[in-house]
C-alpha cells in the first residue's frame, strides 16, 4: 500500500488533521524565519572569523615575544647580565603571560556550538517544509481523485 492509498482511505477527520499539520508547518517554517536564521548564522560565522583573526594576532605577538626572550637570554649569557636586559626580559615575560591569558579566553567554542545549532535548525526547517509541501500536494491530489 502506498502513502497515497493510505491517505485516500483515511477518514476525513484524519485528512483534515494532516492538512492542519501541513498548514502549521508552513506557518512555522516560513521563508522569512529561515532567512532570519540564515542571517543570524552569517553573523555568528563573522564573529567566529573575527575571534580566530584576533587569536592569530595574539598568537603571533606571543610568538614574537618568545623569540625576543630567547634572544635576550642568549645575549645575557654571551654578554653578561645588565639591569636593562633584565628589566626588558621581565616586561616581555609579563606581557607574554597577559597575551597567553587573552588568547586562552578567546576560544570560540560557544560560537561554534551556536553555529552548529543554527545550522541544524535551518536544515530541520527546510526539511519539514519540503515534507509538508509533499504531503500537502499528496492531500490535494487525493481530493482531486475523489
- Please state the second-level CATH architecture: Orthogonal Bundle
Overall, the morphology is rod-shaped
Q: Helix/strand-derived class?
A: mainly alpha
**Which CATH class?**
Mainly Alpha
Question: How many discrete domains?
Answer: 1
Give, in order, the helices and strands: HHHHH
3D architecture notes:
Helix 2 (12-28) packs antiparallel against helix 5 (109-145) and helix 3 packs antiparallel against helix 4. With 146 residues, this protein is mainly alpha-helical. It has one domain (3-145): Helix Hairpins (Orthogonal Bundle). 91% of the residues lie in helices and 0% in strands. The mean pLDDT is 88. The longest helix has 49 residues, at 31-79.
List keywords for this structure.
91% helix, 146 residues, Helix Hairpins, rod-shaped, 5 helices, mainly alpha
Chart the SSEs and their pairings:
Layout: H1 3-9, H2 12-28, H3 31-79, H4 83-105, H5 109-145
Helix pairs in contact: 2-5, 3-4, 3-5
Structure in a nutshell:
This protein has 146 residues and is mostly helical. It is built from five helices and no strands.
Amino acid at each position: 500500500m502506498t502513502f497515497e492509498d493510505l491517505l485516500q482511505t483515511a477518514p476525513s477527520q484524519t485528512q483534515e488533521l494532516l492538512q492542519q499539520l501541513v498548514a502549521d508547518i508552513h506557518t512555522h517554517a516560513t521563508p522569512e524565519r529561515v532567512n532570519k536564521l540564515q542571517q543570524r548564522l552569517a553573523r555568528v560565522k563573522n564573529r567566529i572569523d573575527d575571534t580566530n583573526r584576533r587569536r592569530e594576532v595574539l598568537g603571533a605577538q606571543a610568538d614574537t615575544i618568545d623569540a625576543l626572550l630567547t634572544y635576550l637570554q642568549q645575549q645575557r649569557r654571551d654578554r653578561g647580565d645588565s639591569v636593562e636586559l633584565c628589566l626588558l626580559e621581565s616586561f616581555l615575560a609579563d606581557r607574554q603571560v597577559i597575551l597567553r591569558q587573552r588568547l586562552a579566553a578567546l576560544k570560540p567554542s560557544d560560537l561554534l556550538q551556536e553555529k552548529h545549532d543554527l545550522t541544524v535548525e535551518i536544515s530541520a526547517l527546510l526539511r519539514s517544509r519540503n515534507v509538508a509541501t509533499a504531503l500537502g500536494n499528496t492531500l490535494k491530489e487525493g481530493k482531486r481523485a475523489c
